[in-house]
Amino acid sequence: MTRLTLSEPTKSKKSSGLSGFALPAGIFGLAAITAVIAANLSVSVIESASETAVKEELQLSDLGWADVDAAGLNVFLIGTAPNEAARFRALTSAGKVVDAARVIDQMDVVESKSLAPPRFSIEILRNDAGISLIGLIPESTDRDTMLETMTRVAGDESVSDLMETARHPMPEGWEDAIDFAMDALRILPRSKISVAADEVAVTAMTDSRDEKARVETELSRSRPDDLKITLDISAPRPVITPFTLRFIKTEEATRFDACSADSEAARERIIAAARAAGVEGQTSCTIGLGVPTTRWADAAELAIKAVDDLGGGTVTIADASIALIALEGTPQAQFDQVVGVLENNLPGVFDLSVELPASPESTAEGPPEFLATLSPEGAVALQGRVSSQAARITADSYAKAAFGSNVVRMSARVVDDLPRTWPVRVLAGIEALSQLGAGSVVVTPDTVTVRGKTGNANAQDIIARLLVDKLGEDARFSVDVSYDEALDPDAALPTPQECKARIVRVVGDRKIRFEPGSDALDSTGRQIMDDIAEVLQGCGEISLEIQGHTDSQGREVMNQQLSQSRAETVLRELRNRRVLTSTFSAVGYGEANPIDTNDTEEGREANRRIEFVLIEPGNDTEEALANQEQTESEDAQSE
Predict the structure, then answer these.
(1) What is the H or E stretch that residue 325 is in?
(2) Taking the CB of residue 596, how many other CB atoms lie within 10 A of it?
(3) ω into residue 242 within 30 of 0, thus cis?
(4) Which DSSP state fits 628?
(5) Exposure b/e, 195-234, CB count within 10 A at least 16 = b
(6) d(Cα 563, Cα 591) in Å, to the nearest integer?
(7) Beta strands in 464-614 (DSSP E)
């Protein structure tokens, strides 16, 4: 019992020593485990925060193609960059959020395609201030030699070099084009020269017409065989004040005392009218500035023809005033008729005064007469004699009610001692004239004579019944009226196919053009629209699709939008010119229907076009196009 008692305390001491060692060790182990867990949690938080922050920065920089993967402290950028610049931007953006040393680049770059060479061109401007050059040239161009030549040409003037270079092969014909441009610059001190490898366009001003001819000849001779050149050389025109034309026709001679024109075309028209009136030999007409109206040539032609129709006389046009003097002895009826035609066809801006000198050996005025004429254009002239001012006003008002107030020209004189029934006879004659498409009515004390053409096959019977009703059964009158299908408002209307053919003819080799990259017509395009509108106003109701087409340059959606807006511009321009467009439509086809290759400038120019396509009942646009191309190739487009 004693031994047992002594051994128990010994065991108790040993157990106490082990327990005191295990407790600290357990505490340190627990701390280590806690530290590891905390470290792992911190790394996860850092990874997630870095990945989120970099992704947000890439999105804000429009670099959504790049993806992010964080591993530990490293941030990996993955994805395919469209180019090297985009790849660099992605690295830079990530480096703004985390330490750049932590960013690992694992991005690919899209394989780059070879770039097409740019279009090399130079704009050379020369005036009193010097010479300036702007454009893009190949790096291999001998720039120093070109500038030395420019400096010699400029003399005391300055040379401004604003050209840029590109490292691409020199296009074929480039050096020949530069050499030709240098030649043109030497002889044209006021000029603009546009240089490309295949074309040189020269716009310049010379001191005289002779100088203009000499320069054009010299440049044409020096042109290289394979180079296209466009010359727009102008000569200054004198200012003519007043703008004057004086034409004389007598038994002795037919000539101009003075002749002015505002353009080459106007001069040709005026000289042609003079030759038709009897002018022979060399005839000149000065082209100058100062014309009062663009219809100067119209007035000159009409005035010259009036002198010729009278058998002689003198006409003088000074700005917008016209004075016509007939020869002595000209019959009054002939004078009245010619003057009436002239009055009713002159442009509205001109003021006409006429004179019929009395013949010395005869003062008799002849039998009283009233003359009413209706021109094919719808102009009405009332001439001759009326019995009173009230009768004159009544006849004028009656005619304006029948024909329209803007087409009636009253020039009848008030004369006493006319027959009592004269006013009734005058009004009956005017009413008879209203049944004609063109013609005349002559009222005398004895008879009423009606002559002309009409689009109404029953007009002669209608006129006869009218005169019997107004003048009485015993009235003397003569009706000589012929039916003219061209005056029939129904029969005279052309078919839709004829209208389309007329559009093609009136446009000819011209083309509806717009400002570059715009839906705004240029000046030539506006003139063509005037001509097309004139055709369509006489066509009646036809179904027409105005189609806009472009070449293939640029984005397809932009080309479609541009073609649509250009087609709508043409439709709007026709509507502004009082063409009924309720059956017209405007459609843009963009680059979808080329008529030539888009690989050449000429082909692309042909593809940029406006077409007028007839829409047949029951056919869609494609069928109409196919039928049109099958019947007449020149009808494929309205240029």
Answers:
(1) strand 321-326
(2) 14
(3) yes
(4) H
(5) bbbeebbbbbbbeeeeebeebeeebeeebeeebebebebe
(6) 9
(7) 477-483, 544-549, 584-590, 609-614
Q: How many whole angstroms separate alpha carbon 530 and alpha carbon 386?
A: 41
Coil/strand/helix, residue 27: helix
Higher pLDDT, 571 or 44: 571
Q: How many CA atoms within 13 Å lie on the side-chain side of 351?
A: 5
Q: What is the 3-state secondary structure (H, E, C) of 253-305?
A: CEEEEECEECCHHHHHHHHHHHHHCCCCCCCCCEECECCCCCCHHHHHHHHHH
Q: Which two structure tokens, joined as six digits, stand for 204?
A: 């310049």
Provide the β-strand partners of residue 200.
195, 229
Angle at 36 between CA 32 and CA 40, to 5 degrees: 170
Answer whether 383's CB lies under 8 Å from 355's CB.
no
- Least confident window among 268-282, 321-335, 620-634: 620-634
Pairing of strands 380-386, 413-414: parallel
pLDDT tens by residue, 404-461: 888 999 888 888 888 999 999 999 999 999 999 889 999 998 889 999 998 887 788 7
Calpha distance 258→241 (Å, rounded):
12
Q: What pLDDT, on the 0 to 100 scale, is given for residue 416?
A: 80
3-state secondary structure of 464: helix
When the pLDDT of each residue in the chain is averaged and rounded to a whole number, the result is: 82
pLDDT tens digits, residue range 185-232? 888 888 899 999 889 999 887 766 777 888 888 888 888 888 888 888
- pTM for this model (two decimals): 0.33
Quick one: pLDDT at residue 519? 87
Sorted by where each starts, the structural domains of the chain and their CATH numbers stand as: 38-113 (3.30.1340.30), 121-234 (3.40.1520.20), 241-322+338-347 (no CATH), 366-491 (3.40.1520.20), 496-636 (3.30.1330.60)
For the stretch 323-342, pLDDT in tens is 899 998 899 888 988 988 89
Q: Is the Cβ–Cβ distance between 67 and 59 less than 8 Å?
A: no
- Of 296, 295, 287, 301, the closest CA to residue 240 belongs to 287
Cβ pair 269, 297 in contact under 8 A: yes
The beta strand positions in 147-250, using DSSP E, are: 158-166, 191-196, 199-205, 228-234, 244-249
- Please measure the distance between the N-terminal and C-terminal CA atoms of the chain and give it in whole angstroms: 137
**pLDDT tens per residue across span 447-459:** 899 999 988 877 8
CB 75 within 8 A of CB 53: no
State the Cα–Cα distance between residues 593 and 587, nearest whole angstrom.
Answer: 12
